[in-house]
User: Which sequence fits this backbone?
């Protein structure tokens, strides 16, 4: 089995921002047990910026971007050194991978990253992945490491993704209110956004809304996703063993998606233009019982220029984004298809990703 484990900042840090080495040691021990069983593990770890706060001085005088660059730069060194020390005790090698969202902007970059992880696995090395905040700016940043972990799990076709935060899972109301409880299982197409709290963590960049969105997308690609409290003892072991008594939220996996569709699913930030489609094409694309490609008669208009193999957003007449896909030809060539009865697909089904349709 292969599993991606994302550990959030609030799991790794104590009050004030210093790293909680005792807690890190417990998590490393559990990850090491999986590794020694022959399981393939990717560790996506936050905590660099939080760790940097315990080292840097007078950083509050800097602007927000400079603060993040300073704290992540010095904090990442401390974070990876701590992981190396703890994994050395277990006799396990780790490899550091720092990425930006731009690294996944093309299919070739995506495959290069996949080959890197595969090489580490083949040499019994656990990849420790984090966003390279020193060079990332707003337009090129992941929402947070939840998004990065979902992308890693999808890219490497993992069976499971564990998202460890400082909360037990998705609650059916405000966790602080009496009578609320954790939603233990979320099936494909279930909509739970009404329950998600908008608040963010003390040290992290995202919140439960982000976790829920990423978990939904990842599960719909065929990966079981678990949101759990990473501060609880033996959390990874309990999730791995599917302990029914352990409280967490399990997003049940949907139908397995081909690798290229998984890449496209996480590439909505790299689209070059928009294609607006009519209601007939919309109905065809949303009909999950039958695979459908986007054909020229279903197109109302294009917004923006593009070349062959660029990614396009797909919107309906109301402006609602339905999905995205890789276009089969240049815009000029497609426009010449007007009046042709039997034209090739503009976006073939194999290179098309439609956002999941949820039930209220």
Assistant:
């Amino acid at each position: 089995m292969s599993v991606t484990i994302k550990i959030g900042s609030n799991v790794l840090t104590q009050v004030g921002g210093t790293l909680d080495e005792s807690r890190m040691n417990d998590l490393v021990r559990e990850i090491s047990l999986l590794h020694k069983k022959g399981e393939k593990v990717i560790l996506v770890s936050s905590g660099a910026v939080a760790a940097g706060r315990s080292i840097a001085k007078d950083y509050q005088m800097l602007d927000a971007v400079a603060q993040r660059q300073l704290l992540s730069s010095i904090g990442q060194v401390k974070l990876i050194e701590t992981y190396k020390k703890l994994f050395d005790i277990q006799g396990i090698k780790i490899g550091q991978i720092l990425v930006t969202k731009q690294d996944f902007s093309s299919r070739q970059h995506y495959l290069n990253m996949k080959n890197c992880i595969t090489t580490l696995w083949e040499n019994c090395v656990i990849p420790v992945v984090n966003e390279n905040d020193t060079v990332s700016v707003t337009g090129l940043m992941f929402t947070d490491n939840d998004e990065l972990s979902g992308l890693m799990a999808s890219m490497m076709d993992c069976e499971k993704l564990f998202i460890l935060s400082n909360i037990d899972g998705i609650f059916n109301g405000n966790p602080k209110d009496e009578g609320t409880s954790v939603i233990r299982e979320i099936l494909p197409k279930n909509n739970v956004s009404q329950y998600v709290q908008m608040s963010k963590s003390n040290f992290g960049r995202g919140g439960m809304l982000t976790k829920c969105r990423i978990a939904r997308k990842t599960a719909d690609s065929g990966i079981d996703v678990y949101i759990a409290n990473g501060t609880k003892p033996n959390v990874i072991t309990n999730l791995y063993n599917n302990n029914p008594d352990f409280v967490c939220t399990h997003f049940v996996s949907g139908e397995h998606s081909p690798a290229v569709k998984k890449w496209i699913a996480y590439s909505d930030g790299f689209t070059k233009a928009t294609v607006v489609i009519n209601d007939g094409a919309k109905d065809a694309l949303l009909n999950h019982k039958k695979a459908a490609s986007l054909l020229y008669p279903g197109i109302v208009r294009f917004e923006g220029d593009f070349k062959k193999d660029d990614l396009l957003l797909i919107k309906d007449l109301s402006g609602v984004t339905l999905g995205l896909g890789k276009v089969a030809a240049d815009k000029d060539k497609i426009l010449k298809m007007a009046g042709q009865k039997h034209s090739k697909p503009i976006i073939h089904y194999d290179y098309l990703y439609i956002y999941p349709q949820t039930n209220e």
